[in-house]
Amino acid sequence: HALVVQAAVGSSFLVHLAGYTVILAALAALGEPLHLGRLPLALFLLVPLLFLAIGVAEVLAALQTLLKDVEQVVSILLMVAFYGTPILYPLSLVPPPFADWMAWNPLAALMERIRDVLIEGQGLAVSDAGFWLAGIAAWWAGHAFFERVSPHFEDFL
Q1: 3 state SS of 28
Q2: Which string of DSSP letters, residue by residue, matches 59-97?
Q3: Closest C-alpha among 82, 76, 85 to residue 106
Q4: What is the radius of gyration, based on Cα positions, of the chain?
Q5: I want to staple 131 with a disulfide (CB 3.0 to 4.6 A). Which of 15, 30, 48, 137 is the partner?
Q6: Quick one: how far is CA 133 from the chain centroid?
Q7: Tens digit of pLDDT for each residue in 106-143?
Q8: What pTM does this model have?
Q9: Which candidate, 62, 102, 96, places its Cα nearest to that of 81?
Q10: Helix, coil or strand: residue 34
């Protein structure tokens, strides 16, 4: 059951990694000082994001099966989350009142760490283990929820 969701998230991640490569090439072409030798560390930091995405996707897939209007709410929430996460811009460019709110976004910290690794040339930090723990916990909770409600899917299809 959950393999379909995991495959969809995994394939989406591969497509976005290709886009990520294009962004890095554009930044390099524009003269942004990148530390491409740190790319394996950045990929290491993206793995917890993959776990988080799989966990959230499994919860949402289960809820979409049980409640048909989940898709309408999720599309709005994902758009807010995307623009509220400093992916293509550093958090330092956001005006202070908004930056304070954006700092509450757990993805903001992860994106800032990836930016620190690729642009600032920093290495891994002990606090990066927290991203891994959170990602694995989200995956485990999402998978447990999916497996718990999946026997009831046929009643709603």
Answers
A1: helix
A2: HHHHHHHH-TTHHHHHHHHHHHHHHTS-SSS-GGGS-HH
A3: 85
A4: 17
A5: 48
A6: 14
A7: 899 999 999 899 988 999 999 999 999 999 999 999 99
A8: 0.87
A9: 102
A10: coil
